[in-house]
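The step that takes the researchers longest sounds almost clerical: writing a folded protein down as plain text. Below is the pair of lines this work produces for a single protein:

——
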Amino acid sequence: MPSGVIQWFPGHMAKTRRLMKECLSSVDLTIEILDARIPLSSRNPEIKKILGTKPILTLLSKSSMADPVATEAWVRSREARGETWLPYDAITGEGVSKLLPAIRTLLSEKLARYEAKGMTGRPIRAMVVGIPNVGKSTFINHMAGSKKAKAENRPGVTVQKQWVTAKDGLELLDMPGVLWPKFDDTATGENLAITGAIKDSILNLEEIAMILGGRLREHYPLLFAERYRLSEEELNEGDLYDLFLTVGRRRGCLMSGGVVDEARTAKTLLEEFRSAKIGRISLEFPKG
């Protein structure tokens, strides 16, 4: 992972941190949206420190693209820690019916107090946080029943906070998506780059695609081999560059003279991962 990608936007992170702290008093809970394929890498390491005792509901967005076995393991491991994690996909509807009950469970004591005071009609206000391109705006639009938040499949679309009135008595505060200024390890930066949380324009896509090829060879060899018609020898012998070139040849990413077009190969491999054409794949797994 190029070192220039590891540290960026420190000013944006500081501004968003201040904004989150300022808004805490006006919300009942925080809805934290993570990428189900990379739950740890897509989670702001400072989130608990920023939110303090405010209840957190964690949604594993894009769950229809992630390995369901890995996602279930994440949910179980975090439940054991007393956290509430819920697979969620607005497109497929996964987890949608469980969302409001989970919110009401988290806020049961506060809602009981409101009911005792005759404040049963009071809306539940939630701050929605998450990194760029994690599915925050898609979630908000689904809950609002209309396109209230700008949603595109690229990072950095939401640039300022905005309140959105949603269904089921919810009011959602959409916060800007921003990455932290420094990643704890190289794998975190790689995961964010592979999934599209970091703008492709500042990346060495060929390097990122080769790293992805190595992950697929290690964890999902059957899906990888099937998608690109790789023999056992092609899959397991040679280095990541050889494997990358083989993928390029299989997908017809060739220039004159039969030379592999490396830029086109990288874009193809990354796009097919990001759109789940290779299969339902996770890049992180809970330990133990």
User: Anything to note?
Assistant: The domain at 204-274 is CATH 1.10.1580.10 (Conserved Hypothetical Protein Ylqf; Chain: A; domain 2). The radius of gyration is 21 Å.
